[in-house]
Design goal:
By secondary structure, this protein is of the alpha+beta class. The protein has helices at residues 2-6, 127-143, 212-218, 222-233, 241-248; strands at residues 31-36, 39-44, 64-65, 70-71, 82-95, 102-115, 146-148, 151-152, 154-162, 171-177, 184-193, 196-206, 236-238, 269-270, 277-279, 282-284. The strands form four sheets. The protein has a seven-stranded antiparallel beta sheet, with helices on both faces.
């Protein structure tokens, strides 16, 4: 009750100095379960509480998600090499103390992605195939986006980190803007079948003007990053019998997700299969 009075959307004055905003509490949440083609994903997160009350959520339904997916808009993913299905979306506003109002925004998108044209010789349960698929998807989604000719709008992957608490290969990473202050993305990827990957994207941003450095000096986004860590830390996955068989059938002896990954050299695109990064007409594959 005290926090809802001290931290609320009403703005009557301007904050002085660096401000640490407050949003929803993670501790009040109950565990959610999502049926992803008979693979059960469990996680915890706050209820939908956006700053913009007209911003609708995509509700988690008590059904079996088939993970069939649809093509992206051409402006979003021009290569049309990947398809996606939206599973959930929620958003949360963060507010400064004592009527300094809206300060920051955090949202979560949960979706399933897969190649537009299936590749029967690839299993995303293999760590290296999954790693290459993730890098290729990121390139298809962000690598084409240019601030100016030959100057990328985005940089990534940053802060690449394998996730070890799931029974499948899993990665978390950041995508940050270059040149123009904008939102930041934190992504989580993991497979739930030989040809389907779950993508969880956290989008977060300041509610102020200036360069990214100036915005960071004015508004401390650590509470948003802590919420991201709390939600990622709550993830649990139970594979279906079919997915367990698919995973057991691959030969991944000695293979593992890379402990680190340098940013990709964008602008770039993917080859027509969606797997493999093309730059200056030469395919460049990660080691």
């Amino acid at each position: 009750m005290f926090n809802s009075l001290k931290y609320n959307r009403l703005r009557l004055r301007t904050a002085q100095g660096r401000t640490t905003p407050v949003g929803p509490s993670f501790n009040i949440n109950k565990e959610l379960e999502i049926n992803l083609a008979d693979n059960i994903l469990s996680l915890a997160m706050p209820r939908h509480a956006p700053y913009n009350r007209n911003r609708e959520q995509a509700r988690i339904l008590s059904k079996r998600y088939e993970l069939r997916g649809v093509g992206y808009n051409d402006g979003v993913l021009p290569s049309n090499t990947w398809k996606a299905e939206t599973i959930a979306f929620r958003s949360w506003g963060y507010y400064g103390p004592w009527f300094t109002g809206y300060m920051a925004d955090l949202s979560i998108y949960i979706g399933a992605i897969h190649l537009s044209e299936p590749q029967d010789n690839i299993s995303f349960f293999h760590p290296k195939a999954f790693e290459l698929a993730t890098l290729s998807y990121l390139t298809a989604l962000h690598g084409h986006d240019e601030y100016s000719p030959n100057t990328p709008r985005w940089q990534g992957p940053l802060n690449w980190q394998p996730i070890l608490c799931l029974p499948v290969p899993a990665i978390r990473l950041d995508i940050h803007p270059i040149n123009v202050p904008s939102r930041r993305y934190h992504n989580v990827f993991f497979p739930v079948s030989k040809d389907k990957i779950i993508k969880i994207t956290f989008t977060y941003s300041h509610a102020c003007a200036g360069s990214m450095e100036q915005r960071d000096e004015r508004i401390n986004l650590q509470p948003l990053r802590q919420m991201i860590d709390d939600i990622v830390g709550s993830l649990a996955l139970t594979l279906s019998p079919e997915s367990e068989l698919q995973m057991a059938s691959i030969d991944a002896a000695g293979a593992a997700i890379s402990n680190s990954m340098p940013p990709l050299n964008w602008p770039a695109d993917v080859d027509p299969s969606g797997i493999g990064i093309i730059q200056e007409k030469n395919a460049v594959l990660p080691n």
